């Protein structure tokens, strides 16, 4: 059993439902993840459905992937990856599984309506609610303004602005931004 099994899925927000991804979600996720405007910013831009489906359905990937639904229709996905916090050797066990990295993609047809912000707010609520984590963090290329705007709208603090630290598939070294939020800072 993994930690996400303890969450009562689906999690509902005002307009959305967030649930665990299933292998059969690969086909619908391909629809937005294969679009150039989405692929520009994600870690792996799929170019072949079979390769994408194999990667999407890998157990390690399904374990951290959530599907965002609007009226029962998938419109995006979230990554919620529970991680260990850095700790000195003597207290390392106390740092295990205490934080999460978040990531998201949204079908461009549904962008501009606050769905990403709402979905990420729901994921943060899961992290600080049922999962009892102490911290969440997320990062993006600095040029991906919609992503860092979501983080700022949710009260996440910019913890790092790094110069030319990420190699974009265009061949350009781009600036990066990392944001974090502690449970005691979360206002819901």
Structural write-up:
By secondary structure, this protein is an alpha+beta fold. The protein has a domain at 3-85 and 93-138: Gcn5-related N-acetyltransferase (GNAT) (Aminopeptidase). Helix content is 25%, strand content 32%. Strands 1-2-3-4-5-6-8-7 form an eight-stranded mixed beta sheet, sandwiched between helices. The protein is globular, with a radius of gyration of 16 Å.
Brief overview, please?
The protein is an alpha+beta fold and 188 residues long. 25% of the residues lie in helices and 32% in strands.
Percentage of residues in strands: 25-35%
The main pleated sheet reads as:
8 strands, mixed
How far is it from the N-terminal to the C-terminal residue, by CA? Answer: 27 Å
3D shape: globular
Main-sheet strand order equals 1-2-3-4-5-6-8-7
CATH class call of the domain at 3-85 and 93-138: Alpha Beta
The CATH architecture of the domain at 3-85 and 93-138 comes to: 3-Layer(aba) Sandwich
Q: Count of DSSP E strands?
A: 8
Rg is 16 Å
Quaternary form:
single chain
List the helices and strands and how they pair.
Elements: E1 11-12, E2 16-20, H1 26-33, H2 36-39, H3 49-56, H4 59-62, E3 65-70, E4 73-83, E5 99-106, H5 115-128, E6 135-141, H6 145-153, E7 157-167, E8 173-182
Parallel strand pairs: 5-6
Antiparallel strand pairs: 1-2, 2-3, 3-4, 4-5, 6-8, 7-8
């Amino acid at each position: 059993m993994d930690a996400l099994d303890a969450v009562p899925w689906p999690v509902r927000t005002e307009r959305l439902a967030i649930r665990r991804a299933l292998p059969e979600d690969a086909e619908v996720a391909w629809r937005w993840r294969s679009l150039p405007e989405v692929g520009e910013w994600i870690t792996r831009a799929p170019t072949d459905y079979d390769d994408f489906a194999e990667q999407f359905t890998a157990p390690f990937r399904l374990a951290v992937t959530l599907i965002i639904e609007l009226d029962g229709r998938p419109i995006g996905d979230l990554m919620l990856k529970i991680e260990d916090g850095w700790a000195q050797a003597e207290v390392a066990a106390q740092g295990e599984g205490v934080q999460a990295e978040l990531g998201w993609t949204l079908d461009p047809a549904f962008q501009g309506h606050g769905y990403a912000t709402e979905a990420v707010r729901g994921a943060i609520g899961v992290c600080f609610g049922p999962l009892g984590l102490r911290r969440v963090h997320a990062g993006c290329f600095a040029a991906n303004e919609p992503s860092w705007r979501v983080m700022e709208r949710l009260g996440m603090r910019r913890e790092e602005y790094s110069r030319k630290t990420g190699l974009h598939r265009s061949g350009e070294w781009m600036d990066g931004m990392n944001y974090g939020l502690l449970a005691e800072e979360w206002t819901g």
